[in-house]
Specification:
alpha+beta, about 30% helix, Alpha-Beta Plaits, YciI family protein, Dimeric_a/b-barrel, two-stranded antiparallel ribbon, 2 helices, about 110 residues
């Protein structure tokens, strides 16, 4: 089985305040379903209130992330699933619950992890 990253950037979450409570409830229900199905690895949201730093191999700390990279924010879930089709199905469930499109990526297999 492979691990899949299902995520969305914060800017994609464009819902009215009244709808935000429902999106939160519904997305938590999907995560609970993933836990019950035994496919949930971990997930959460990036805390935008904590500044990003970049740490070099020598331990030097610089403010901000990679200059050429896109900002990593929003929410994510990592699920361990038997197929890409299963991953697409879970991503669709999360997209419906969150009321925004989800990005789907697969982690490369690393036998040491």
């Amino acid at each position: 089985m492979a691990k899949y990253l299902i995520s969305f950037p914060a800017a994609a979450m464009v819902v009215r305040d009244v709808e935000l409570e429902h999106a939160s409830r519904d997305s938590h229900a999907v995560i609970e379903a993933a836990k019950a199905a035994g496919v949930y690895v971990f997930g959460g949201g990036i805390d935008a209130g904590v500044p990003v730093v970049r740490v070099s191999g020598d331990g030097t700390v610089a403010k901000g992330g990679y200059p050429s990279g896109s900002e990593l924010d929003g929410g994510f879930a990592v699920l361990e699933l038997p197929s890409r089709d299963a991953a697409v199905a879970w991503a669709a469930r999360l997209a419906t619950a969150c009321r925004c499109d989800q990005e789907l990526r697969v982690f490369q297999f690393d036998p040491a992890s």
